[in-house]
Amino acid sequence: MKNNSSHQKISVAVDVLLFTIEDDKLKIVLVKRKEKPFKGSFALPGVSLRESETLKEAAERSVRERTGLKNIFLEQLYTFGELERDPRSRTVSVTYYALTDPGKLDASGTDDGVSLISVDEILKGDPELAFDHRDIIEYGRKRLSGKVNYSDIAFEFVPEEFTLPQLQRVYEILLGESLYKANFRKMISPLVEETGNMLTGMAHRPSKLYRRKNNN
Asked: Nearest CA to 76 among 36, 34, 136?
């Protein structure tokens, strides 16, 4: 007879959805598992929670160990705790999502085992993912689409100085729809300011560079 008074050991994992935009696509950092279960499958970068750290510190460690990135946007997403999500033992995953522009990711010294994969392709079923990580990514993608309407998270995907077409393209990718140039610029005008610099060296004429306005 099962002793219901005994304490069941439950593992706590902290998994991170690290999003960026590259080649006009929303992409996410994945790692290929080197051990069972799901050996050879892609998975979200994650760590086991240590007794000496907070959940956010564990998420920061996961990002730092895989990509070298520090001090980037990081926010808790959701807690996933289905009974059979990990075949080894009962494991609860506290997930965070992180955002960065591709320039920082390229310069960060990313680990060799890290891949940057299109979110759209993942949600279509390719490649194979470990555990319930495809469901987690789908949840995170929906959160981004919703949050871009009432926050300034789009700025996390562009450099410190950017053109308005660059920023508009980020909004369009996150929302999954095209935006009218005039309407977008009216919407974004309270959030940006000119830097006085120009983007040159391109095929078209120089473009004004902007930055996020500090409204504090």
From this structure: 136
Q: Any residues with CB less than 8 A from the CB of 59 and at least 6 apart, and which? A: 14, 16, 74, 76, 96, 98
Asked if 141 and 42 sit in the same domain, the reply is yes
- Residues 15, 85: contact at Cβ < 8 Å? no
What would the pLDDT profile of 155-213 be if each residue is shown by its tens digit?
999 999 999 999 999 999 999 999 999 999 999 999 999 999 998 766 677 889 999 99
The number of folded domains in the chain is: 2
Radius of gyration over alpha carbons of the chain, in Å?
Answer: 20
Q: Find, among 58, 65, 77, 61, the residue nearest to 19 by Cα.
A: 77
**Stated pTM of the model:** 0.91
Question: What is the domain range of residue 173?
Answer: 160-212
24 and 94 share one domain: yes
